[in-house]
Design goal:
Strand order of the largest sheet of chain B: 1-2
Structural class of chain A: alpha+beta
Number of helices of chain A: 19
Oligomer: heterodimer
Helix content of chain B: 55-70%
Largest sheet of chain A: 20 strands, antiparallel
Number of strands of chain A: 22
Distance between the termini of chain A: 48 Å
Number of helices of chain B: 24
Number of strands of chain B: 6
Distance between the termini of chain B: 38 Å
Largest sheet of chain B: 2 strands, antiparallel
Chain lengths: 565, 447
């Protein structure tokens, strides 16, 4: 029995309060019909319905079969499909999975609380003739307290009362839920410690909430849930190992989804902070008290970017603990390669200590004024890579050396392939010296090859080193970093932001090329163009999409948020 | 001066005396373009040989849809500089153009003047060369050969810039004589050395021909017995004047369009026509495709389909819409990577198309085309059968007639009928299975 005081923290009408304890996990949905209604009335749906793809889809036999099925269902229920949806899905719906003795497959339990009892009763009455037609296969009983039960052979047990319905293959499990619905207080899923923790840390009022009892999973599978102690892939280790390690200690995994008129928010979370991990795994997380990566630099025409805050140096130092022996020689090869680019410097001793903890990658529209009138026909964004430097002067020199070496090597390649070589020149912009590689010969003509999207630039701006593929972006980053620092760093390890309207603008500038790609796949030019324009319209309805992680002393969460117009 | 009509084996078929059948129409279309659909065969059968040949040989207006797609694809190839985009552009032309014989000859000349983008590295230069091949596909081989010696891609391909006054590079001159105009054994090493001097200073700058006067050897040279301060253009004319030149070309044309092993008499006859028409290709091809030799029964089903003929031909026969990128990938696996011939000699073709590996790939192609949409969509076979006789014998006859150059042997036909009668699944599945079997037959590899 779990302490009932926790019930105070739980939304009074949450179905988690009437789910029996012992589940491996659950999903709860609140007012799905309301969200369907919102979607039906949205601009997004209007665009989808107008799209050529949809107009094609409604001609397919599958679509016609689906519509016929809906008509049959509406006739049986004597109400239109949206009214039925309001009745059945306008309240709450919960599905929980319970371990089953002698079986790997869990047993489900479904609880539905309809928005109105009268509607559910109407549906029940319309379906009763089918129960009668089923004969002995369905045993119907009217039990005490107005409870009506149906037993479909030994496959499904259903209980109905007023505005709710419970269903499960296991009668005993369904009857436990019936008891809780009738006011019993003991054995409630929501009061079990992992789920109580989840609700405490992730909130209780959501459109969709998912909870997984990791303690129960660890008992069912193994203590580490098959997470290897050492990874065999460096990139996977950099991105996921510390989070996977946190999952092996967290009592729960949770996820919530909320949608309103302005956007959506999908949050996934684990309990536990960096201090709960062994020292070799703490490098990934920012300090909850002192912050993490900064917001993306505010440059004009920003299409998107990634900010990553981690102690990469600590990861590299701990690589023998974090990664299997088999991959260790790859680091030796990598260090040899780096020595070619940075002669006389050691990666672990010289380079990593000069790096700060934040690396930022941004993509933004670029201008082509430096090309003297022409523009590449295929327009790519400018890309910028920004390294925070722990030792600005030393780090700046190292990156400048790297830039010079790459320029030289690239020119060797250009000579072999007959491409234009680069000449490194320097330009001063707002007291910052920018090194840039310009093409030896200024291009002639208005429509230029794709290579003219690239004119690599490098500059040190305070304690940051900026590498970009375009001069305009380099100058914009200098502007952004010379402005007063924004408010305190946001406590995010990872911060990805995408601006679909800007991405749509980029796609629009390359519309012919995208259409050509569609034609290459066998479609005709006209319908391909219309299809792409439809997708661009959809993209323009979305303002921003963000994916970021937050670190607190006792929890770690990933958030995916979208805002639409 | 009027040119005498061809006689002997190249005499035109007298269609008053012979029946112009569906088989004749199919034979002409498979050789003059990349495959033929049932509707195309019916149209050509109805039009008759004279009207069809006139249409194949004269420039036809392209449709608005074709022009729009062609322009998009070409611009994409220029804008991205991607070889795959360039290949997709040409495949679109090979498949969809209203001038299929021109495209087929463009591929023939591409193979003749085999130049690879792997070395040239410029889609613009390769596209220009491709345009030259297309312009002269049914034009003049004389102009084509002259144009090729001043083509930017060709000059990169054969290291034109290395051909300098004091260090004449023989590569360019050797390939002109050996691969483009005369063939081995029809020139001496001295001819090559002297001709190389004539091409010195024929350089390339920014993908364009550039006459570098400072590097041109203006001294006296002797090529094929003619002495003087010869330049490159004069050497080309001397090559064209050699007896070996039309013979060399005739052999290649006969192998590509008529039969794999032409006799000496056939070569001599066609070489005479090339000379008579001063290498005007429309006239020569018109005579060849109208000739007794071309329409003789001994030529049917004798040429092994190249990958383009196999892949595009199957798609065309089945009214398909190719996925240009995946079809290009398949053709490359089968040994024909357009714009990227394997060697300076081009694709040898004929029996060399068939190896144990490529035969397996050809079977895989058939499976992918009939079982998936990876290579593009083919018209629903079920729809094709609708309204027609759906008895196994009729269905098998319809598809073997469409896809095979010659009727299958009785035993093979019975096997196909038996398969179709016993096959399970819906109508479309059964027909797709049947198509797979037909396309896996050795007979399908021939045209």
């Amino acid at each position: 029995m779990w302490p009932t005081c926790a019930a105070e923290a739980i939304k009074s009408d949450s179905l988690a309060r009437v789910l029996p304890s012992g589940a491996l996990g659950f999903v709860e949905v609140d007012n799905l019909a309301g969200q369907i209604q919102r979607l039906r009335q949205s601009q997004l749906m209007k665009l989808v319905l107008e799209s050529p793809e949809y107009q094609e889809a409604i001609k397919t036999p599958q679509y016609k079969q689906g519509m016929a099925f809906i008509k049959v269902a509406e006739t049986i229920l004597d109400m239109d499909v949206w009214k039925a949806s309001d009745t059945l899905l306008g309240g709450q719906l919960a599905l929980a999975l319970y371990p089953k003795a002698d079986s790997k497959a869990p047993e489900p339990l479904l609880i539905l609380r309809a928005s109105e009892a009268a509607g559910l009763e109407k549906i029940r009455l319309r379906l009763m003739p089918f129960v009668a037609l089923a004969g002995d296969k369905i045993q119907r009983k009217e039990e005490a307290g107005g409870l009506e039960t149906f037993q479909l052979e030994d496959k499904l047990f259903v209980a109905l009362k007023q505005n709710w319905m419970v269903a499960s293959p296991r009668r005993e499990l369904a009857l436990r839920a019936v008891g809780l619905l009738n006011g019993q207080k003991d054995g409630v899923l929501a009061f079990e410690p992992p789920f109580a923790k989840l609700r405490e840390q992730m909130g209780t009022s959501h459109f969709v909430q998912v909870g997984v009892n990791l303690e129960a999973l660890r008992t069912a599978i193994n203590a580490r849930m098959n997470v290897p102690a050492q990874f065999d892939n460096g990139a996977a280790s950099l991105l996921f190992q510390a989070v996977a390690e946190l999952a092996t200690r967290s009592p729960y995994f949770g996820a919530t989804l909320d949608v309103d008129d302005k956007g959506f928010s999908l949050v996934t979370g684990l309990a536990g902070g960096p201090k709960s991990l062994a020292p070799e795994h703490q490098w990934y997380f920012s300090d909850p008290k002192t912050g993490g990566t900064a917001p993306l630099p505010a440059v004009p025409g920003l299409i998107g970017g990634i900010g990553l805050y981690s102690d990469f140096s600590a990861w590299y130092r701990n690589r023998e603990k974090l990664l299997v022996e088999r991959v260790q020689p790859e680091f030796d090869k990598f260090e040899s390669g780096i020595k070619t680019l940075l002669p006389g410097r050691d990666f672990a001793d010289d380079i990593l200590p000069a790096l700060g903890r934040t690396i930022t990658l941004v993509a933004a529209h670029q201008t082509y004024t430096h090309l003297g009138g022409g523009e590449p026909a295929m327009k790519l964004p400018g890309f910028g890579l920004v390294f925070d430097l722990a030792k600005p002067q030393e780090g700046g020199d190292l990156f400048q050396l790297l830039f010079q070496t790459i320029a030289t090597l690239t020119n060797f390649g250009a000579a072999e392939s007959g491409n234009q070589p680069w000449v490194m020149v320097a330009e001063s912009y707002k007291d910052i010296s920018i090194s840039l590689m310009r093409h030896l010969k200024k291009p002639a003509g208005k429509q230029l090859p794709v290579v003219y999207n690239f004119m690599p630039c490098a500059a040190r701006v305070g304690n940051r080193f900026v590498l970009t593929s375009s001069p305009s972006l380099c100058k914009q980053l200098v502007d952004a970093f010379q402005k007063p620092a924004p408010a305190a760093p946001i406590n995010k390890n990872l911060n990805i932001e995408l601006f679909p309207t800007e991405l749509a603008l980029l796609a629009e500038r390359n519309l012919d090329l995208l259409t050509a790609r569609a034609v290459q796949s066998g479609k005709d030019a006209e319908s391909s163009k219309r299809g792409i324009e439809g997708i661009l319209k959809l993209m323009r309805t979305v303002d921003t999409i963000k994916l970021y992680s937050t670190v607190k002393e006792d929890r770690f969460q990933f958030r995916l948020e979208g805002q639409w117009k | 001066m009027s040119i005498e009509k061809p006689s002997g084996i190249l005499a035109p078929v007298d269609w008053q005396q012979r029946t112009w059948s569906r088989a004749e129409a199919k034979h002409l279309l498979w050789r003059a373009q990349f495959g033929a659909s049932a509707q195309e065969i019916a149209r050509v059968h109805a039009d008759g040989p004279a009207k069809t040949l006139a249409r194949l040989l004269a420039p036809q207006p392209e449709s608005t849809a074709f022009t729009a797609a062609d322009s998009l694809l070409h611009r994409a190839a220029m804008d991205t500089g991607s070889a795959d985009d360039l290949k997709a552009w040409w495949l679109h032309r090979l498949f969809h153009s209203a001038n299929p014989l021109t495209e087929k000859l463009t591929l023939f000349w591409h193979n003749h003047f085999a130049t690879s983008i792997a070395k040239v590295r410029s889609t613009a230069a390769m596209s220009t060369q491709n345009g030259l091949c297309r312009r002269e596909a049914l034009g003049s081989f004389r102009r084509l050969l002259h144009g090729m010696t001043q083509d930017g891609a060709m000059l990169v391909w054969l290291d034109g810039n290395a051909n300098r006054r004091r260090h004449a590079n023989e590569n360019f001159a050797r390939e002109i004589m050996e691969l483009f105009a005369l063939g081995e054994g029809n020139y001496s090493e001295k001819d090559i050395k002297e001709a190389a001097r004539a091409f010195t200073g024929w350089h390339v700058r920014e993908d364009q021909y550039w006459f570098n006067r400072a590097q041109h050897d203006e001294g006296i040279k002797t090529v094929f017995g003619k002495t003087g301060a010869l330049g490159g253009g004069e050497v080309v004319d001397l090559c064209l004047a050699q007896k070996a030149c039309p013979r060399f070309l005739a052999t290649k044309l006969l192998r590509a369009f008529v039969l794999p092993q032409p006799t000496e008499a056939m070569v001599a006859a066609l070489a005479a026509r090339l000379r008579a028409h001063d290498f005007a290709m429309a006239a020569v091809m018109g005579e060849l495709l109208a000739s007794e030799l071309f329409h003789g029964i001994q030529t049917r089903g004798t040429i092994i389909k190249g990958p383009a003929e196999l892949a595009l031909g199957a798609l065309r026969a089945l009214d398909g819409q190719p996925n240009l990128r995946t079809v290009n990938a398949v053709m490359s696996l089968l040994g024909q990577d357009i714009f990227q011939p394997a060697t300076v000699k081009g694709w040898e073709g004929g029996r060399m198309w068939i190896t144990s590996a490529s035969l397996l790939q050809r079977a895989n192609f058939a499976a992918a085309l009939t079982g998936t949409n990876q290579l593009g969509s083919i018209q629903s076979p079920d729809a094709r059968a609708r309204g027609a006789d759906t008895a196994p014998a009729a269905i098998v006859a319809h598809y073997t007639d469409l896809l095979l150059a010659r009727p299958p042997a009785q035993e093979s036909r019975q096997r196909l009928e038996s398969y179709f009668a016993d096959a399970t699944g819906d109508g479309a599945d059964r027909i797709r299975g049947l198509l797979h079997l037909i396309m896996a037959m050795p007979e399908f590899q021939l045209m």
